[in-house]
């Protein structure tokens, strides 16, 4: 074997700039391809959803945990386990609704928006909308129908980035054809 | 010891993948029909088993045994179902199924942009890795010397 | 939006620092996977798809260049062709992909052409190309990055991707680069 001075980094990790810039390239492409910000937001959400559907499988494979007992446990797992695992940060869970069916994730930094200035003339663009889709898709796969949206965004001048999750209903398993 | 067949179903009951190794007797019905019956049976066993259970079950139905074979079942919280049929001498295969899910399905299907998750798997890499893994298992290997 | 009055340091004013924390390879792989599928739905042929991926890669590469040169070399750019290629093969590759590229070679019959060979590029790690798309190589994205980095550093070149010893990136430099390099040599 040759010398190990140039030992490779952790094979399970990727350079954060590569990730941020790749996302930036995608958003730039979508802005080119679509007519308005709403359509871009929608497309980002859709792509996020597709990612979430896949990401949850990776999560279940790695975290090796069963189903959560309630939405509070889900919130904790999202913030402390999932965000940590996939983006290397831990948002704060806060602003619970009285009924316990809504909460916010507060992010001090957002790896999707590093180096990013919102392009001018795109004030309705939710640059990080992908994240909403990811959460929605991932939760749907574990039978939770959840609405996800940005309520604050540092890119738009807010002091913090806040993602709001609202639990709608538990989804039932699909019944096979020919059964009731 | 022997491993006969492997099935992978998605949450909607689509058979994503089927493989067989030492299945000697050929079926009288079509593969599609077999998949449908298999999924329907698992669905029923699962729901009935949990209804019979004296307390709330976390894992539920794990396997059943007939006089000729043993069916091992593993379901992820996302509703993916993995089934392995083996002969009677094979012990608990939960870890094996979990391993197939996490190291083969997730790595080579979930992360492959050219694989649709709700369509049968055509990835050669998945096929190869699964085959290689199953053949490396002690439950599989001893079958040659024993038979 | 309502919040333009607030004075917050913008992201552009933040220090670039030692590099961002890393993210999970799965996060990147799935993002890339979505990008490939998005592009695939908007084109008809494999070459078109590769061009699209290359364009996106160029976007990434052109931004990456500044970040990396600034941090690694304190604005000092490479002047010599060979040192630039070695910089890409080693430093650049290591920062971006976590390892050096496997090989750097020069074409036998052409002084404008170089090859960087990578057995398993990061973006291809999870991709098993179905038989009907035999020639598709998603590392066209990486080729685009390389092209933008080279162009940005004033080494205009075309970079294409080929299935050979894993993946081979073929770098064809502009005549001007070779001529310039010879004059730098003779100084």
From TrEMBL, chain A:
<comment type="similarity">
    <text>Belongs to the TRAPP small subunits family. BET3 subfamily.</text>
</comment>
<dbReference type="InterPro" id="IPR016721">
    <property type="entry name" value="Bet3"/>
</dbReference>
<dbReference type="InterPro" id="IPR024096">
    <property type="entry name" value="NO_sig/Golgi_transp_ligand-bd"/>
</dbReference>
<dbReference type="GO" id="GO:0048193">
    <property type="term" value="P:Golgi vesicle transport"/>
</dbReference>
<dbReference type="GO" id="GO:0005794">
    <property type="term" value="C:Golgi apparatus"/>
</dbReference>
<comment type="function">
    <text>May play a role in vesicular transport from endoplasmic reticulum to Golgi.</text>
</comment>
<dbReference type="GO" id="GO:0005783">
    <property type="term" value="C:endoplasmic reticulum"/>
</dbReference>
<keyword id="KW-0564">Palmitate</keyword>
<keyword id="KW-0256">Endoplasmic reticulum</keyword>
<keyword id="KW-0813">Transport</keyword>
<keyword id="KW-0449">Lipoprotein</keyword>
<keyword id="KW-0333">Golgi apparatus</keyword>
<dbReference type="GO" id="GO:0030008">
    <property type="term" value="C:TRAPP complex"/>
</dbReference>
<dbReference type="Pfam" id="PF04051">
    <property type="entry name" value="TRAPP"/>
</dbReference>
<comment type="subunit">
    <text>Homodimer.</text>
</comment>
UniProtKB/TrEMBL annotation, chain B:
<dbReference type="GO" id="GO:0005794">
    <property type="term" value="C:Golgi apparatus"/>
</dbReference>
<comment type="similarity">
    <text>Belongs to the TRAPP small subunits family. BET5 subfamily.</text>
</comment>
<dbReference type="GO" id="GO:0030008">
    <property type="term" value="C:TRAPP complex"/>
</dbReference>
<comment type="subunit">
    <text>Part of the multisubunit transport protein particle (TRAPP) complex. The heterodimer TRAPPC6B-TRAPPC3 interacts with TRAPPC1 likely providing a core for TRAPP complex formation.</text>
</comment>
<dbReference type="Pfam" id="PF04099">
    <property type="entry name" value="Sybindin"/>
</dbReference>
<dbReference type="InterPro" id="IPR007233">
    <property type="entry name" value="TRAPPC"/>
</dbReference>
<dbReference type="GO" id="GO:0006888">
    <property type="term" value="P:endoplasmic reticulum to Golgi vesicle-mediated transport"/>
</dbReference>
<protein>
    <recommendedName>
        <fullName>Trafficking protein particle complex subunit</fullName>
    </recommendedName>
</protein>
<keyword id="KW-0256">Endoplasmic reticulum</keyword>
<keyword id="KW-0333">Golgi apparatus</keyword>
<keyword id="KW-0931">ER-Golgi transport</keyword>
<keyword id="KW-0813">Transport</keyword>
<dbReference type="InterPro" id="IPR011012">
    <property type="entry name" value="Longin-like_dom_sf"/>
</dbReference>
<dbReference type="GO" id="GO:0005783">
    <property type="term" value="C:endoplasmic reticulum"/>
</dbReference>
From TrEMBL, chain C:
<dbReference type="GO" id="GO:0006888">
    <property type="term" value="P:endoplasmic reticulum to Golgi vesicle-mediated transport"/>
</dbReference>
<dbReference type="GO" id="GO:1990072">
    <property type="term" value="C:TRAPPIII protein complex"/>
</dbReference>
<keyword id="KW-0931">ER-Golgi transport</keyword>
<keyword id="KW-0333">Golgi apparatus</keyword>
<protein>
    <recommendedName>
        <fullName>Trafficking protein particle complex subunit 5</fullName>
    </recommendedName>
</protein>
<dbReference type="InterPro" id="IPR007194">
    <property type="entry name" value="TRAPP_component"/>
</dbReference>
<keyword id="KW-0256">Endoplasmic reticulum</keyword>
<keyword id="KW-0813">Transport</keyword>
<dbReference type="InterPro" id="IPR024096">
    <property type="entry name" value="NO_sig/Golgi_transp_ligand-bd"/>
</dbReference>
<dbReference type="GO" id="GO:0005783">
    <property type="term" value="C:endoplasmic reticulum"/>
</dbReference>
<comment type="subunit">
    <text>Part of the multisubunit TRAPP (transport protein particle) complex.</text>
</comment>
<comment type="function">
    <text>May play a role in vesicular transport from endoplasmic reticulum to Golgi.</text>
</comment>
<comment type="similarity">
    <text>Belongs to the TRAPP small subunits family. BET3 subfamily.</text>
</comment>
<dbReference type="GO" id="GO:1990071">
    <property type="term" value="C:TRAPPII protein complex"/>
</dbReference>
<dbReference type="Pfam" id="PF04051">
    <property type="entry name" value="TRAPP"/>
</dbReference>
């Amino acid at each position: 074997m040759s010398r190990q001075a140039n030992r490779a980094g952790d094979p399970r990790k990727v350079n954060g700039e590569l990730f941020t810039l790749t996302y930036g390239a995608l958003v730039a492409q979508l802005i080119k391809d679509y007519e308005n910000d709403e359509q871009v937001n929608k497309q980002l959400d859709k792509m996020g959803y597709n990612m979430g559907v896949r990401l949850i499988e990776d999560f279940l494979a790695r975290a090796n945990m069963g189903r959560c007992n309630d939405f509070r446990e889900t919130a904790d797992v999202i913030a402390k386990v999932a965000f940590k695992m996939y983006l290397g940060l831990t948002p704060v869970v806060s602003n619970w609704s009285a009924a316990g069916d809504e909460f916010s994730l507060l992010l001090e930094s957002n790896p999707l928006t590093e180096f990013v200035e919102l392009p001018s003339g795109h004030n309705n663009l939710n640059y990080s909308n992908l994240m909403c889709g990811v959460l929605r898709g991932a939760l749907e796969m574990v039978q939770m129908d959840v609405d996800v949206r940005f309520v604050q965004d540092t890119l738009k001048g807010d002091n913090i980035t806040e993602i709001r999750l609202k639990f709608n209903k538990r989804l039932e398993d699909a019944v096979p054809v020919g059964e009731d | 010891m022997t491993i006969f067949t492997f099935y992978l179903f998605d949450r909607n009951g689509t058979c994503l993948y089927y493989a067989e190794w030492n299945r000697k007797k050929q079926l009288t019905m079509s593969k599609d029909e077999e998949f449908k019956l298999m999924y329907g049976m698992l669905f029923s066993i699962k729901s009935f088993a949990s209804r019979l259970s004296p307390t709330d079950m976390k894992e539920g139905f794990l396997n059943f045994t007939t006089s000729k074979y043993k069916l091992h079942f593993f379901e992820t919280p996302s509703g993916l179902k993995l089934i392995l049929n083996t002969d009677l001498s094979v012990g608990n295969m939960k870890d094996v199924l979990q391993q197939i899910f996490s190291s083969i399905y997730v790595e080579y299907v979930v992360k492959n942009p050219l694989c649709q998750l709700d369509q049968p798997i055509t990835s050669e890499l998945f096929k190869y890795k699964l085959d290689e893994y199953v053949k490396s298992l002690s439950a599989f290997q001893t079958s040659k010397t024993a038979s | 939006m309502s919040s333009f009055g607030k004075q917050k340091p913008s992201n552009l004013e933040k220090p670039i620092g030692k590099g961002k924390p890393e993210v999970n390879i799965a996060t990147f792989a799935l993002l890339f996977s979505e990008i490939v599928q998005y592009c695939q739905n908007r084109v008809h042929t494999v070459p078109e798809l590769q061009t699209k991926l290359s364009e996106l890669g160029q976007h990434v590469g052109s931004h990456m260049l500044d970040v990396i040169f600034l941090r690694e070399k304190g604005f000092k750019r490479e002047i010599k062709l060979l040192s630039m290629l070695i910089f890409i093969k080693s430093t650049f590759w290591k920062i971006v992909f976590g390892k050096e590229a496997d090989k750097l070679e020069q074409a036998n019959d052409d002084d404008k052409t170089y090859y960087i060979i990578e057995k398993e590029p990061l973006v291809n790690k999870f991709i098993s190309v179905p038989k009907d798309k035999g020639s598709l190589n998603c590392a066209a994205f990486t080729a685009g990055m390389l092209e933008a980095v080279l162009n940005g550093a004033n080494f205009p070149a075309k970079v294409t991707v080929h299935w050979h010893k894993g993946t081979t990136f073929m770098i064809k430099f502009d005549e001007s680069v070779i001529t310039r390099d010879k004059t730098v040599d003779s100084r």
